[in-house]
Structure formats: C-alpha cells, structure tokens
Amino acid sequence: MQIPKWSEKFRKDLMVKNYSESSIGNYVSQIRSFLSFFDGKFTEPSKINENAIKDYLLSSECVNSQRHRHSAIKLFYRTTCHSPMKFRYIQYARKEKKLPIVLSVDEIQRMFDVCENKKHKVILALLYSCSLRVSELINLKWTDIDRSRMIINIVQAKGRKDRQVGLNDKLIELLTDYWHEYHSIIYVLNGQGDHAQYSERSVGEVVKQLASKAGINNKRVYTHLMRHTSATHLVENGTDINLVQKLLGHSNVKTTNIYLHISHNHISKIQSPLSQIRL
C-alpha cells in the first residue's frame, strides 16, 4: 500500500492548500489509520471500493469519529488521489445534537477560589474571560496582547482566521503579576525552557484538577467546556448573539445559537403548562 508515500503526498497537498499544522496532523493521522486498515487487502487507495469505505466508517466508535474520518478520507481522495467521485454516494452521518452541560458562575468562582498557582489562574482566566480554544491559549504570545487598545489578537486560529477579544483591567493585573513571577519570554504560557510552549495536555490537567478541588463532581469538566461556559454566560449577561459569534470566531451565527439553547435565562422564562393547573 506504500502508506508513508501516500501520507507524505497528502501532507504536501494540504500544505499547498495552506491548512494549519494541527489540521494537517489530524488529517494525515486519519489517513494513516485508514490505509493501515486496508493494508494487505488492497494494493493502492484507488482500489478500495465504496462498500469497503462504508464498512470502515461504520466501524467508528461514535458518530463524531465517523464524521471526522469521512472528512479526512473524502479530502484525501479529492486532493491527492484526484478521485472526487469516490464519495459520490457516501453521505455524512447525521450530526448528533448534544448540548454541552456548562458550569454555573458559582462553580467557576469556586475553581478560582481553590486556585493557588499563578500560572494555573492565568490559564483559567484566559479560557473563561476570552472564550479561547486550547490551541489558541498555548499559542498566545505577549506580542498579541495590546494594552493600548484593550484587546488580545488571536492570530491564525481555526480556519487560518484572525480575530480579537477583549482585555479587561483584572486580566491585565493578573498577567502582570504572573509575568513578574514566571518571566516567560515569547509565549504567555511557557513550557520547559524559555522558548517552549505549554502543552494542551497540561492545560487539560490543570482544568480537571481545579474542578476536582472545587468539588465539581457531577459534571465532566474539560478544557473546551470553559469556552462553552464563557459563551453561555455572555449570552446570559445580555451580550448580542452576533457579537458573541465574532468573539468566538464562528463563520456562521447558527453555530453560536447553541448558546441560546443552553442559557438558563431563556429557558427559565418559559411558562410551564403546569402553572395553569391547581395541584
């Protein structure tokens, strides 16, 4: 099957199309797994038939995994194998419509209350205040922070898009105290060494440990949940949904509308039919 050859060819095609490094890594990893699954059964990707591809997609653990596989393999056949018709009759699985269970303001406050490490507090504050993705957080540089305009520039985020988020006085004070203690040089969150980045895994561990210390045991707390929570609280505080869309970097406001469904302010105003009944 010559998996290394096809993987490298796919990587170069994605680089020419100016995909981000993280996207390229994810897509290439998916293709390696796909080709490895059929290694010894087919001699080259073009020989893998439609039914075999469907069987591979259906072997996914969940619908989201199936959709990720589908996207990567379809892109591979279109850009690298030059066979766009391979997926002519292979449809995307319907997306699961699951609403994230977000944290309350009180639970966020408890996480800050139990946080004693300055770097960990900066992680929590940036995730919650700026609705950042974890990749945006670890790639954040000191030069991206513009105190004169009170904004943070999020450079080349998902989809190679730049955007800006707000910077407030509390966050400036926290970042200043943090810098005096850690003296990170390039990246706000330094890893091992002056020029090294903090890892996504380390951020995840920080968030999980703070949630545990805060006694939040009835919800699964993970890094991206902080982004969901931040956006939901913005909506609950009356921020216009179109502005929330810009802050999050969503291409379509339909993606942002999920936070209207999560917001308890909207749900709690719905009058129950039980209110008309004498109990």
What does this protein look like?
- The chain is mostly helical and 279 residues long.
- A 3-stranded antiparallel sheet has the order 1-2-3.
- α6 packs across α10.
- The chain is globular.
Q: Can you tag this structure with a few keywords?
A:
mainly alpha; 279 residues; globular; 3 strands; 3-stranded antiparallel sheet
Provide the fold topology:
Blueprint lengths: L2 H14 L4 H17 L12 H9 L4 H17 L25 H9 L4 H13 L3 H5 L6 E2 L4 E4 L8 E4 L2 H14 L17 H14 L9 H14 L4 H8 L4 H4 L1 H5 L1 H4 L12
Antiparallel strand pairs: 1-2, 2-3
Query: What oligomeric arrangement do these chains adopt?
Result: single chain
Uncertain ranges: none
**What is the distance, rounded to the nearest whole angstrom, between the alpha carbons of the first and last residues?**
71 Å
Strand percentage lies at under 5%
Please compute the radius of gyration using only Cα atoms: 22 Å
The total beta strand count reads: 3
Strand order of the largest sheet: 1-2-3
Structural class: mainly alpha
Q: H/E element string?
A: HHHHHHHEEEHHHHHHH
Shape: globular
Number of helices: 14
Helix fraction, binned, reads 40-55%
Sheet with the most strands, sense and barrel status: 3 strands, antiparallel
Average pLDDT works out at: 91
Short description:
The mean pLDDT is 91. A three-stranded antiparallel sheet has the order 1-2-3. The protein is mainly alpha-helical.
